[in-house]
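Q&A log
Question type: sequence-to-structure
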Amino acid sequence: MKEKITGRDAAKGVTRVSKQRPPVLEEVEKLLLLWIEQKQRAGDSVTKAIICEKAKALHADLLKQQPVAVTVATQPGTSADAEGFKASRGWFERFKTRSGIHSVVRHGEAASSDVAAAEEYATEFLEVIVSEGYLPQQVFKCDETGLFWKRMPKCTFITEEETSLPGHKPMKDRLTLLFCANASGDLKIKPLLVYHSENPRAFKKHKVNKEQLSVLWQSNPKAWVTRLLFVKWVNAFFGPAVKKYLVDYNLPLKAMLLMDNAPAHPPGLEEDLLEDFNFIKVMFLPPNTTPLLQPMDQQVISNFKKLYTREFFRRCFEMTDRSSLTLHEFWREHFDIVSCLQIITIAWAGVSQTKVNSAWRNLWPDCVVKPASSASAPAPESTVLEEIVSLGRTMGLEVTEEDVYELVEEHDRDLTTEELVELQKERHAKCG
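Response status: OK
Response body:
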């Protein structure tokens, strides 16, 4: 009897136990771990039921995409036989042991416990605020989000044409942004941007000086925020900006940074802060309470993405209106990552102080300032959507508000099986 193989897989955790295991099932588990890692980075944990459903969906997709592998993988008596992969209790327990994901999996009454945890945390948070005397100007929240910076609404002719083309597709080009602002909304920190390339070709073409960008430009193959990059941003931008702000406004030198429990910013972060910033206290939101509590998630990031899309459409219209370029030519050949950076700057600046402040209504309602008049309130979300649709139709795009809303929401959706496969290939290439 051959010894068990205990070599670690590139997907960070799957341990091969037997050469008899179907290749397609091994691939499912690799992709499943990448997906779980993505959920962790969003500050979410998952239940057994959710993991099993995702495993079955991955298995079904892989069988469709890899017909040659089906004959190899669907051997009688295996978990991937012709009747389909069941994601049984036995498989799940073995997968959990092989991958070491015990701490990620939630059990039992998930939704109700999330609400209870959110309510309990909100009470504890306010007690800290009151007992330690924090002002809205001193309390900050940061959050990460994905941005498919060149993506168009699904129904447009550009999207339809791209889906039929082989090879790299610009609409899949994704970057990650980390946004941060204080509860009063009057200090927005320079964002962290993580891309898959350290020096894109467009930087050379436009003679870009990365030190002068409106973001901290960083890179890694997956375009994800890592702990190392996060700590670099905290010490290079967050700490100095907060300290200068507090000194300039003659406020007590103390601050709180509120974060998700994502791997990029785990407990112990205060130990990584430079000595100049030891006045910063770090607090963490409980897992799975993001939709209920997280201030940056309460319309701030959504507002940024709508403003980004509006400026993107406006730039497309202006360039095609004053030149001989078609929309497709401009989008394909002239809208590059440098153009994207310019739009990110405009969109982040366009997120109003009122919008940022009002996002704290669930966690810290007393810090939210009521507008003196409707005139001082930011433009309604519906108005921004209407402007995007109007610009799109002016350019000949058949686009609706629902299409735009779907586009905005899609930036943070789960990666598809195809995208997970591509990520897995990239990771394997790096390790190989």
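Response note: Residues 112-421 form a domain with the Nucleotidyltransferase; domain 5 fold (CATH 3.30.420.10).
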